[in-house]
């Protein structure tokens, strides 16, 4: 009945793999733990890049590019940072291969005197540059960004969600004082919120991570948390206020107006190709991906009903004319992206390919449409009425005039649908840890949609927080964040029974 | 007198380093052989990316992303390819660090069973994907592109020209037959010619590389050759027809219409951040970089003559209004990029910063300009009259109305200037090798501008070609390419005295 062989209800993880594969977004590569991002996945990432890059630049950041490889000694500088990252990283030890006994091997004579690490993140090498570039308060704030690949060795991989190599941007800034650096941390999180909600139609909850989930070396870590269709949470990007920790480790100082020397306050923040996985798990359905129109590589796809006959040329011309007119329009602040699919394949197969990829508007145009000057189309985000595919027909001029509006409406419908799901699946009313145990501890393997818990706590630290983590872990739960929007008053802590000081979200997570 | 401490005439290599540094384009990093690309250099690369990516997509290619790391065994498949590349590459041997005797080291227990190579180019791993994706003639042509970082270990580095890590795009395509693959090879070279000439104002000569300069494993390699201001040649991009060599090594086959199985014909082609170095050496002058307007990150920069007084606000508003109007315009097919520099620094220092970076139009606007409703500006490509800086003044409305035209004119002037230099410095009339020796063998160390030699040859192969290479190398020369535009008839070969069959270009090169 549906385009995929497995449904979300039957097996959510299998369904996810099926969408990634059938939508032609990515596949595993022969390099262990690394993915090949295919055309539709890469096009989606390019749209995210375009939108996010524009916002990053509009807010006064400039793009730089720093080396892929970082000398090992750099990781020894910030103690907490090493502790957090120094474990699973790809290490380059040789710079030459040699044929030894007929086999290609690392040349023993070409061993590096100091091993190089493939960047797992670039605070250390960018901090080193900051220490050279920043001399005076006039050099601050220094606000830069980098688009690149990074690598964190992962044993269990899942396309887009957890792979050894992935793509991201990393913002790095230095400021004269704490207030300016904190404002920057908040600005980055707000930019991410806009991209997630307005561009990817993914509703998110911004908030602060608990102490034990901070980025290694950070003073505060903030995240966006999004809800997947299986009720799990996915961290959709992070922004860190690093205080003067990295500045002290790397000697990032500046001379202020009065001639005194101070340490700069730094921040870092990143959004990754993981967002593609998030979009799939928020918007996909049993027919495949539903790509949010703002971010779809192709927003309107026309499949001409070609029949290998001379009349085909006329039909193709009709389709190309419509696409040419559509591509003069703007949608979501970018030129509209329409496309005629003239691949050598059966029209019905092509239509289903675009359904699985989730092109927002898919037009099937036959000779009758051309003769009547009309366009027949389906809306991917509202594909079916009951089990039947629902198609619409409009006069050509009306379709073109309404195209941007149709895309905007679809975008809004997708956001509203996801927002309703998020809001109606955050559960209150847990007064004790036993309440939480009762709710999440039963039917553990049923896969039943449980959503998130919103609870109050006394914000324990250190060993007490570790214990909270252990108790939650037994239920496969974790603290997601303390939402930025907090209530006016608090009850008692569900972990300690003490008066609570904060509201937090608890969930299973990717 | 001039903005740089060293002139082109005094010391061209030193001058080049000074431009890269003073224009804030790049610097060496603490990672040996790797560069940090700074804001103005990265902005320039982003403009090249934007233009080239648009052309690549318009001609039916889609972007993919393949793994950074390639299993060592992949390099053993195409024998000639290994021979050419298997030497200087970064080798990953471990996936974890461990603290051993208080020192971070590669964990001996985390040694990879098969070393991984940081891609020096991606034919092998993309070919492997092709062998899985291509089944039928309906899957062909398969035309894809990737933007990424690559690594080739280099001992002597020069910013943008030769570094261990650099950025590029690599196109990879598979075709049913030779004709289609050859057409693709030519198409890629033509796209590169357009980007070089129309976008970067760098005149180039397309042609075929001699047999001994082919990409390892290629049947034919084509290049664009550009002339630097010191008379040396720089290879400005390459396009390879790979025949069925890679297809045979990697089993890339398809079923044709009649059910037979054939090997696909493949191509690959690339353009790199080296183009930034080329643009500097073609367009730079003794005041720094002159950025071609089409590719300049900021095309029009306004420096308000702020004096730390209340009137500053009015002046800033005037400048911002002009920039807002300019940024509504289009130039070279993209939105125009104008900018007000309100950095906390002396206006004269800021003006010189933009001169050294080579912003095409630099406006210095003071209270008198604002009061008179006018714009005072300098054209970076025609900065001086004699030794004096030449400035221009236009009424505000005229400046805005003429802005696109001023940029287009500057672009054309820069191209024409470089084209004239190229054409007038290719020397004919070498009838024997002794002629060549006489010309290039004298004043070898004087640094005198010698340009290129256009000679006829009998296209020797194998050992005879090696000998030609050796003789040329003694004069520090090499064969650049056999231009696509060939004469109607040929004289005798300057190397062998035999009847010639081809015209080639000989030069010193980067």
From TrEMBL, chains A, B:
Q: Which InterPro entries match?
A: aa-tRNA-synt_IIb, aa-tRNA-synth_II, aa-tRNA-synth_II/BPL/LPL, Anticodon-bd, Anticodon-bd_dom_sf, Pro-tRNA-ligase_IIa_arc-type, Pro-tRNA_ligase_II_C, Pro-tRNA_synth_II
Q: Which residue numbers delimit the Aminoacyl-transfer RNA synthetases class-II family profile domain?
A: 45-292
Per UniProt, the enzyme's principal EC class comes to: ligase
Q: Which Gene3D superfamilies match?
A: Anticodon-binding domain, Bira Bifunctional Protein, Domain 2, C-terminal domain of ProRS
Can you list the GO cellular component terms from the UniProt entry?
aminoacyl-tRNA synthetase multienzyme complex; cytoplasm
Q: What is its main location?
A: cytoplasm
E.C. number = 6.1.1.15
Quickly give the catalysed reaction.
tRNA(Pro) + L-proline + ATP = L-prolyl-tRNA(Pro) + AMP + diphosphate
BP GO annotations: prolyl-tRNA aminoacylation
Please state what the annotation says regarding this protein's domains: Consists of three domains: the N-terminal catalytic domain, the anticodon-binding domain and the C-terminal extension.
Q: How does it assemble?
A: Homodimer.
What does this chain do? Catalyzes the attachment of proline to tRNA(Pro) in a two-step reaction: proline is first activated by ATP to form Pro-AMP and then transferred to the acceptor end of tRNA(Pro).
Q: Identify this protein by name.
A: Proline--tRNA ligase
Q: Give the species this sequence originates from.
A: Terricaulis silvestris
